[in-house]
Amino acid sequence: MFTRRALLLLAAQTGVMGTLAHHLYQMQVVHGDELKEQARRNRTSRRQIAPARGEIYDRCGVLLAGNRPNWRALIMTEETTDLQAVVDRFATIVPLDDRDRARIEHDRKHIHRYVPLTLKEFLSWDDVARLGLNAPTLPGVLIDVGTTREYPFKDLLSHIIGYVAPPNETDVQRDGIMALPGMKVGRAGVEQTQESHLRGQPGTVEMEVNAHGRVMGELERVEGQPGARLELTLDSALQTRIRERIGERVASAVVMDCRNGEVMGLVSTPSFDPTLFDGGISRTQWNSLITDQRTPLVDKAVSGLYPPGSTFKPAVALAALKAHAITPSDRFSCPGYYDMGGVRFHCWSRYGHGSINLHQALKYSCDVYFYQVARRCGMEAIHEAAAFLGLDGKLPIELPHMRAGSVPTPEMRRRHGHHWNGGDTVNAGIGQGLVQTTPLALATYVSRLATGRFVQPHLLRSVSGQGIAPVLDPLPFAKEALAAARGGMFAVVNEPQGTAPAARLSLPGVQMAGKTGSAQVRNVPRALRESGHFNSMNLPWQYRPHALFICFAPYDNPRYAVSVVVEHGNAGATEAAPLAAQIMTDTLIRDPASRTSLSRGVVARADGLDD
Amino acid sequence: MPLKDFTVPRTARRLLRAEPNLRMFSRLWQINWFFVLLVCCLAGVGYVALYSAGGGRAEAFAQPQLIRFCFGLLMMLGVALASPRVLRMLSVPIYGLSILLLVLVLKMGHVGKGAERWINLGGFQFQPSEFAKIALVLMLSTWFYRIGRDRMGNPLRLIIPALLTLLPVVLVLKEPNLGTATIVGVIGASLFFAAGMRWWQIIILVAPLPFLGPFIYNHLHDYQKARIDTFLHPEHDPLGAGYNILQSRIALGAGGRWGQGYLHGTQGQLSFLPEKQTDFIFTMIGEEWGYVGGVAVIGLLFLILLSSMLIALRCRNRFGRLVGLGIAMDFFLYCVVNLSMVMGVIPVGGVPLPLISYGGSAMLTMMFGFGLLLSSWVHRDDPD
After folding, report:
1. B171: closest CA among B220, B219, B129?
2. Do B250 and A33 touch (CB under 8 A)?
3. For the segment A443-478, what is each residue's pLDDT rounded down to a tens digit?
4. Are B27 and B39 in contact, with CB atoms under 8 Å apart?
5. Phi/psi of residue B273, nearest 5 degrees
6. Sign of the CA dihedral A410, A416, A420, A424?
7. Is there a smaller number of Cβ atoms within 10 Å at the N or the C end of chain B?
């Protein structure tokens, strides 16, 4: 009986073993090939490699944004038994601050075991050498090279170039490439708007990997396409000069080539260091940036909205001339004030300007004249002209935070549920009240006024060497109207009793036309004004009017347009006009064409002014 | 008996004709050296495979395992010389010790992969559940030897051995190690079967089993349920729980008919295979040596199984037969559970491939078991 049962068991055992052998045959021989293919896919890993980000140059070929190798120390956590001890020993060789330690602690908990942990970035060559020397005492530590974005001009161009930062989750969802290690996303300025040009195409590398993803060898490599080389219209040297001219003032200035809209200088002060963001910004640094009253993070040249003040008057003149509401020789009288509907609107001059025509009104910057012109031609005509001149609506500049100027009509205001007073039209006549614009729009406006063409401001000169040709349609203003406005602006600077004699250029044979402006940031009480003792210089800084100046030169053959806004600079004539004249002088001297037309001595003298 | 002296050549057989009271030296002659040779071959396969699993280095796994094997070999030969009478006397303390160890491991064992399996015995890790299998074989064989075949028909006589079987099964289940508990249970059952349990008793016991399935599933631990789910749908979680099964399947397939070559299996050498030196050693063998090598190893395993079963069949006394059959069953179940698990036929559970997988307790207990088997061979002609 035992024998029978044992043989029964043996038969069952034989059957089971046979079945297993058969199963093995099925797996290895019958389905072997498909599984073999899976094994091949297992051991090779096609990895994309981050392309080098495109470099940015100025119009003279000076590097504005490039890539610098970033030496960093990583640690393979699975190769160290006591991470804390190694980190402590590392800290004796290369100091780690509390932030580094907190980040290491955070990464240790959140990063996958086989992904190396970053100990310290931006190592100096000395650090790398010292770590190499101490390598035996630092198991698992390795030195790796990545790239970091480099901005040689730091805060000088931070508003324009912007900065890059590691991609966030939304970026990764939008484009899987962003998940590649070392990828950066433009977060402001040209870095942001030209992201598609700058990013490039990732390469691929096929590697033999083990189960932990550790690379055992490289099988094949296809280099990616680096990002496009961008050339901007900026002149970094001019930019530097403008910045020096502005000094400590909270101001913005735009220099534009009026013939084609190339923005050669775009300065907003104060500014910030863009490299702070790539390397990670600390909380205190960030707080000090965002709480600063002078708003260093805001690019005032494109996103600062200011009432244009008197700089708006040439636009009102063009609107009235286009609407045939006035002729250049029509005279209006200015007794120093203008009454409408029981409200008294003052001229800046208490004593009035008497009976004056358009040329005189621009020269003296008479408010009463423009109150009446504005009433006569109406807000719709002013809005239309302002829109043609680039003062209303967005401009096609390659910057992300561009804000649109606005010159609203009563209709537009009503559509948004607001009320329109007759006084609003009157105020708009002198660029106050509801009229708002940016320094960039002012420069565009001057360029268009000076050339009579639809000049479009732009910063991008070429992408990978491919130039961008501007399209310049003529403006729908009569030649005579433009000439009258330009003539008035010429008088402001060059004729006796013009409001901005300080803006006269000291270069022989080059004359500049301009217009001053002062934009109130707060109403002046009537009693105070009528007392005769009002002086805005006595106000606290943040309540003083903004000082504005717009100009173009040379007058007879307009080449450059400049707009300057000095925040709380009080008066355009004294604060903004001399600054604009200096900037214009710098610009003209930098112009290769004017170097030959101006004599050497003059250039030397102009340079001497800089000291 | 037609299967008489199947392994020893005719001349040697005459020379070694068993005498009832042999002295130590002559008993050594009586050992089935062919079987010892097979065991050494299997250990040799293990050495070669572990050398590869260690990335081409002997120090990693192969060397320590070889030392354990040598120790185990000495133990096996020592046990082989022990007389059945002594073994029967020791069966109760051995059984008691194994139960004590199982209780200890529940109280203070080391947790490994969700199950309490290890106990630290003065510096080395020990799995009491491995030892429990051998102890149970010895205990049940002794018990059935004492009650004899004729009294097997009395159900009351079977209550105590049933309890003796259930006790380690329950304790191992508690660890919780479902795989080993099942093996212990099946070994016990096969001894009941071989000892002469009546068919009607078997039918009464086996018939309700299919209805217990869902009940057992409900009482499984979460990790065990997850294991079954993963087994049924490994592709649901290819990087998590299903990883082992998928990678193992891929590795075996990649081996193909002739294998990728010794030390050249990409799955194994690039660490895609988890636990390639322990439970999944056969995958590595299959990948590097192909179907040819895999079947050769299965063949060797079968040869050892066959020899064990024939030793049990050849034995003339009830105790030796039952011990031999129990050990053969133990070895068979190890092989089958491990191979099916590696091939993805049954859910993964921590069962090593005997004498090939890296690990001390499994190797030593298996060698102890082989010692018992050889002992029943040496005393094959002892009367009941």
Report:
1. B129
2. no
3. 999 999 999 888 889 898 888 877 777 667 888 888
4. no
5. -85, 120
6. negative
7. N
Q: Model ipTM?
A: 0.86
Least CB–CB distance from B271: residue in A2, A27, A211: A211
Other C-beta atoms closer than 10 Å to the C-beta of A457 total: 28
Architecture of domain A236-270+299-608: 3-Layer(aba) Sandwich (3.40)
| Rg, chain A, Cα only | 34
Q: Where are the domains of chain A?
A: 47-232, 236-270+299-608
Q: Inspect the interface and report whether the beta carbons of A32 and B256 lie closer than 8 Å.
A: yes
> Which among B16, B18, B10, B14 has a CA at the least distance from the CA of B317?
B18
Distance CA B291, CA A21 (A): 9
Mean pLDDT for chain A overall:
82
Domain topology for A47-232: Penicillin-binding protein 2a (Domain 2) (3.90.1310)
User: Could you confirm whether A349 is annotated as catalytic?
Assistant: no
Instruction: Give the pTM.
Output: 0.59
Indicate yes or no: CB of B294 within 8 angstroms of CB of A34: no
Q: In degrees, to the nearest 5, what angle opens at C-alpha A450 toward C-alphas A445 and A453? A: 75
Domain boundaries, chain B: 24-378
CA B217: distance to chain centroid?
25
Chain B positions touching A40 (Cβ under 8 A) are 266
Q: Is B302–A14 a contact, with Cβ atoms under 8 angstroms apart?
A: yes
Amino acid (1-letter code) at residue B312: A
Half-sphere exposure for B194 (CA within 13 Å, toward CB): 31
For Cα atoms A24, A27, A30, give the angle at the middle one, nearest 5 degrees. 115
Which of B67-81, B97-111, B202-216 has the least mean pLDDT? Answer: B202-216
The letter for the amino acid at B101 is: L
| CA geometry: angle A199, A201, A207, nearest 5 deg | 125
Residue of B nearest to A211 (CA): B272
Cα distances (Å, whole numbers) of residue B64 to A368, B57, B68, B103: 105, 12, 6, 29
Enclosing H/E stretch for A325? none
Q: How far apart are CA A210 and CA A229, in angstroms?
A: 38
Chain B residues lying within 8 Å of A24, measured CB to CB? 252, 286, 291, 294-295, 298, 343
List pLDDT tens digits, range A110-149: 665 556 677 887 888 888 888 888 877 787 787 777 777 8
Confidence of residue A609 (pLDDT cuts 50, 70, 90): very low
- Other CB atoms within 10 A of residue A447 CB: 31
Q: Is B304 exposed, middle or buried (0-12, 13-18, 19+ CB in 10 A)?
A: buried
**Sign of the torsion formed by the C-alpha atoms of A310, A311, A314 and A320:** negative
